[in-house]
From TrEMBL:
Name of the molecule in the record: UDP-glucuronate decarboxylase
Family that this chain belongs to: Belongs to the NAD(P)-dependent epimerase/dehydratase family. UDP-glucuronic acid decarboxylase subfamily.
Enzyme class: lyase
EC numbers for this chain: 4.1.1.35
Length: 343
């Protein structure tokens, strides 16, 4: 195992595509927690594509077997139904830690479970990484900035989070997960990476997860009114999922701990988003205003200078290009086409 580790450490320099001519990159063993979810399943596709072995650990709370079923016959793929709140013993080289519900509707469903997943689950995955000397990447969130008083948000901003509100199980959970990650880095010398992910959309999102893009797209397809919460003037910045996956892999393979904002700086009000959905799906889709939820952040937009400079990463797909790709997937799933998972 020690020799194998040295071999793999050497191989790390070439992971991510840039293999010098004539040199074959060594395959890695990669754990993706939450790998049956929306983002995780796209990451799994890319890791297997580049020749790595992938273990998914997922309790299928918000994830679906359908998202990864196309890999079930692949000997390099394995899925374990397991809750990260419980300890687990595995041997891998890298850990992408994504396990955690991401949609407000899902994470508010059982807030105590959400904070346990973020705190105890992250602690277990860090303990695992420490025992086996694996590199650890945490998927944190733009929610650590809360309802931000700085705009756009830079990584050095400490945020404006309500510690006792209905979103706190997620926001404060992720903030603690970041703390734990840095404490294992400093205290146990663990190699870690932190990504702060901004709103992401794309194929395989849960259709009824209550997030704004999935809601609007499903509503327009079903000929239901688009539900705009509040006055619709609050903003978000929407990133297409393949851009995010590219960023996560560059972060893991790069030399910098972070945190790094990974998001698309293109900022839209919810009314502007509704217009893009109308233009893409149905110009006659009606808009219906609903009461907004508690503690809803007024604006959110990433400053991605750090990721651009240190990771050589920036998103490539604007909303008007990415949305149609998601619509194709949603259309198939809503109207019952069997090929929906092939996207
Ligand atoms: P998702 O809900 O589709 O995926 C999360 C996955 O984790 C699911 O497969 C779920 O079953 C699994 N999971 C949840 N709790 C678990 C537990 N206790 N044990 C094992 N598995 C568990 O969400 P996503 O959008 O793919 O998000 C992935 C990660 O990225 C999350 O950590 C989320 O906080 C982060 N993130 C996502 C976004 C976004 O816009 N999608 C934004 C910021 C951060
Ligand atoms: N852990 C795990 N798998 C491992 C090693 C540790 O799930 O391979 C869990 C372990 O159960 C503990 C947590 O990770 O709850 C933190 O482990 P660590 O060794 O850092 O702390 P300690 O066990 O000393 O409290
Ligand atoms: N939102 C909306 N209509 C919906 C769902 C959400 O107007 O059907 C708004 C919500 O109030 C928030 C924004 O869209 O201001 C983004 O919400 P989402 O749940 O997608 O993600 P968040 O960034 O809040 O985690």
């Amino acid at each position: 195992p020690a020799a194998r580790h040295r071999e793999l450490a050497g191989a790390r320099h070439f992971v991510g595509g840039k293999v010098p001519l004539g040199l074959k990159r060594k395959a890695l063993r990669v754990l993706v927690t939450g790998g049956a979810g929306f983002v995780g399943s796209h990451l799994v596709d890319r890791l297997l594509e580049r020749g790595d072995s992938v273990i998914v650990v997922d309790n299928l709370f918000t994830g679906r077997k359908d998202n990864v079923v196309h890999h079930f016959a692949n000997p390099n793929f394995e899925m374990i139904r397991h809750d990260v709140v419980e300890p687990i013993l595995l041997e891998v080289d890298q850990i992408y830690h994504l396990a955690c519900p991401a949609s407000p509707v899902h994470y508010k469903y059982n807030p105590v479970k959400t904070i346990k997943t973020n705190v105890v689950g992250t602690l277990n995955m860090l303990g695992l990484a420490k025992r086996i000397g694996a590199k650890f990447l945490l998927t944190s969130t733009s929610e650590v900035y809360g309802d931000p008083l700085q705009h756009p948000q830079v990584e050095t901003y400490w945020g404006n989070v309500n510690p006792i509100g209905v979103r706190s199980c997620y926001d404060e959970g992720k903030r603690t997960a970041e703390t734990l990650t840095m404490d294992y880095h400093r205290g146990a010398n663990l190699e870690v990476r932190i990504a702060r992910i901004f709103n992401t959309y794309g194929p395989r999102m849960c259709i009824d997860d209550g997030r704004v893009v999935s809601n609007f797209v499903a509503q327009a397809l079903r000929k239901e009114p688009l539900t705009v919460y509040g006055d619709g003037k609050q903003t978000r910045s929407f990133q297409y999922v393949s851009d995010l996956v590219e960023g996560l892999m560059k972060l893991m393979e790069g030399d910098h701990v972070g945190p790094f904002n990974l998001g698309n700086p293109g900022e839209f009000t919810m009314l502007e988003l509704a217009k893009v959905v109308q233009d893409t799906i149905d110009p006659n889709a009606r808009i219906e205003f609903r009461q907004n939820t508690q503690d809803d952040p007024h604006k959110r937009k990433p400053d991605i200078s750090r990721a651009k400079e240190l990771l050589g990463w920036e998103p490539k797909i604007p909303l008007r290009e990415g949305l149609p790709l998601m619509v194709t997937d949603f259309r198939k799933r809503i109207f019952g086409d069997q090929d929906s998972t092939a996207t």
